[in-house]
Amino acid sequence: MASNTPDSERLKTWSFDAFVVGISVAGNGRTFGVALGDGTVRIVDAEAPEPAPITVHNGACLSFAPDATPDAFLSGGDDGKLVRINANGELTTLAETKGKWVEQVTAHAGANVRVYAIGKDAYVLDVKGKKEPRKISHPTTVGGLAINAKGKRLAASHYNGVSLWWLATQDSKPQELDWKGSHLAVTWSPDGDYLITEMQENALHGWRMSDGQHMRMSGYGAKVRSMSFSRRGVVLATGGADTVICWPFSGGGPMGKAPLEFGSGPMNVSDGSPVTAVSCNPKRDVIAAGFANGALVLGNPGVRSVAISGARKAPVTAMAWNAAGDRLLVGDEAGEVVLVDFRE
Fold it and tell me: Which of 259, 231, 257 has its CA nearest to residue 246?
């Protein structure tokens, strides 16, 4: 990165006047997509003209993710639609269930699948359209979806645990990972050996796939609503506290180990506000974190944190790095979106 403290010329800001539901980077590694609570999506490319609103849903966007194809995104809405948005703004409705909400979406380019969830049911779609959609059901509402890096296993979180499905086997039964409570967002470690969920309570829970070992990560002052593994999977950065809590995942995982943290100290940018969004850089050992008071910092445990300037006051809701790790897009509850450019 050219600079950890970009000047005003390296910050580009837009006001979209609606809650930022999600920010994703397309498979091409360059194009950002921003999903908003008013049902629109903006395509943000630093080399392109100002992003125009694209009306995707007759209602709100509820879920957002990169598509399995390299130049598009997937959006689920409260109008029951799963929509593919091409980088040029072209829309394709992939599925529609009137009167239902599409609350979870994910996709995997290598596996050529898209997955979305409505209530207790998840649907696996073949990108090439050669197979009938596969319906997989769960005991309660799906709280999160995640496909492992190899594209072989789908994790669906729900009340009292997670169900693991083999994507290549149509009639497979799930492996059940049990733990009492409501499990929401779910993520795999880069090596696929750890699976972590955000709980409805102020905690995370996890499993080590190699031996089924449980991991409980607690002590947060607020609910954890964002987590991100570092590029090598060495730490899991999380929100939910007034500093960025980073759990160590080298040498057998975090069991019995104290977490590391950063984001406090002389800057005091949080002013006691909790971290609401985190994103680990895909190329460097740098973590971006946004707070409920709108503050934005870059740092890493054991390294001095740096605040990014800006007039944001609303809670940060979403952020994402591009594939090169030299641009960061951040959005908040008020609809302000800022592109931070670290290129030389």
Answer: 259
DSSP string across 262-278: ES-GGG--STTPPEEEE
Beta partners for 205? 197, 216
- Digit-coded pLDDT (tens) for 186-229: 999 999 999 999 999 999 999 999 999 999 999 999 999 999 99
Residue 61 and residue 35 in contact, taking contact as beta carbons nearer than 8 Å: yes
Separation between Cα atoms, residue 189 and residue 234, nearest integer Å: 9
How many residues in total does the chain contain?
344
- C-beta contacts of 161-169 below 8 A and 24+ residues apart: 162/186, 162/195, 162/197, 162/207, 163/136, 163/138, 164/195, 165/136, 167/111, 167/113, 167/124
Integer angstrom CA distances of residue 153 from 7, 26, 128: 43, 21, 19
Of the CA atoms within 13 Å of residue 225, those in its CB half-sphere come to: 17
**pLDDT per residue as tens digits for the range 45-89:** 867 668 989 999 999 999 999 999 999 999 999 999 999 999 999
Contacts of 245 by beta carbon, 8 Å cutoff, 6+ apart: 220, 237, 238, 239, 259, 260, 261, 275
Question: CB atoms < 10 A from the CB of 87, how many?
Answer: 20
∠133-139-142 over CA atoms, to 5°?
A: 60
Q: Identify how many contiguous H helices and E strands the chain contains and give both numbers.
A: 0, 30
Q: Do residues 56 and 102 make contact, with C-beta atoms less than 8 angstroms apart? A: no
Q: Say how far apart CA 45 and CA 67 lie, in whole Å.
A: 17
Strand partners, 107: 114
- Calculate the alpha carbon distances from 20 to 35, 96, 314 in Å: 6, 23, 11
